[in-house]
Amino acid sequence: MIDSLHVHLVFVTKYRHGALTDEMLTRCEEIMHEVCTDFGAELQQFNGGEGHVHLLVHYPPTVQLSKLVNSLKGVSSRYLRKEYGTHVRRHLWGGRFWSGSYFAGSCGGAPLTVVRQYIENQQRPV
């Protein structure tokens, strides 16, 4: 992708409850990879813990970041609730999976290897 952008995204579960298992994180990565592909973007790095996920996304300047984020959160929420409903309902309630907010940091200034290493070092649940 020529003239593409990189962004480090962090999504947290509603109330930051530890709802994500290792299996769910693996499935979440698959879902988010597909969403990125649909936008012409590339999910380059993914990791997370019980209550959050980190993504490094390479996307073209024609993509509106807010629309990509809304799709990533919406599609993953829908699938994870459908596929892991009993577990999700035990940890989250009120119809929301992700918190309404998110972190988006441009990676233009930091070497991508530093951002990748940071994401890679995030803890997955045991």
From TrEMBL:
Gene3D superfamilies the record matches: Transposase IS200-like (3.30.70.1290)
Protein name (record): Transposase
InterPro entries linked: Transposase_17 (IPR002686), Transposase_17_sf (IPR036515)
Organism, as annotated: Streptomyces umbrinus
Pfam families to which the protein is assigned, alphabetical: Y1_Tnp
Domain Transposase IS200-like: 2-122
Superkingdom of this protein's organism: Bacteria
